[in-house]
Amino acid sequence: MSMHTYIGIMAIKAEPGTNEKGEEGYFTVSSDKGARVWVPKDRFDKMYLGLDTEDKKVNQEDVDKLVAKWLFRRLDKRTILGVAILKSGFRVYATASSVDPQPTDTNPGVLLCKERLHAKIWSYVGFVSQWAFKGLHHTDLESPIYTDITDLESMDF
């Protein structure tokens, strides 16, 4: 029998501490089992993002903590390419137009590009947080907008 690879995302509670050997880490409690487990600091920091709130809501500061580096480059006279390199190594891309020749932090095109990058990152974070707090096989699949895909034909867009 061969083993298969699985991935998972889980929300946990954690507090910093040291184990019986004096090593730094975190005491964690999972939301589903409630078992207290010690995790070494380097492993914990690699796997978890601390939320700034206790109400299970991700805010802008949490999203900004995911970005390791912002890059902006002019592609032609009017187009700026923005890249947000996330701490996981995943890259998010967006473009915007600007007549300002310098891709600086005050350039309106750079600001618009960063806004678009934020919007994309938010959608990814929304997916991940739903998975972490509600699980992968969530049962509430009804949409408040429509209940059947055929309803789209009668909607005015």
What's a concise summary of this model?
The chain is of the alpha+beta class and 157 residues long.
Radius of gyration: 21 Å
Number of domains: 2
Poorly predicted regions are none
Name the average pLDDT. Answer: 83
Number of strands: 6
Sheet with most strands: 3 strands, antiparallel
Q: Tell me the distance between the termini.
A: 52 Å
Overall geometry comes to elongated
Secondary-structure element order, N to C: EEEHHEEEH
Strand content: 25-35%
SSE blueprint:
Layout: E1 12-18, E2 24-30, E3 36-40, H1 41-47, H2 60-65, E4 67-74, E5 79-86, E6 91-97, H3 108-134
Antiparallel strand pairs: 1-2, 2-3, 4-5, 5-6
Give a structural overview.
- The protein has 157 residues and is an alpha+beta fold.
- The chain folds into two domains: 12-48, no CATH class; 61-134.
- 25% of the residues lie in helices and 27% in strands.
- The protein has three helices and six strands.
- A three-stranded antiparallel sheet has the order 1-2-3.
- β4 and β5 form a beta hairpin.
- The protein is elongated and about 60 Å long.
- The termini are far apart.
- The mean pLDDT is 83.
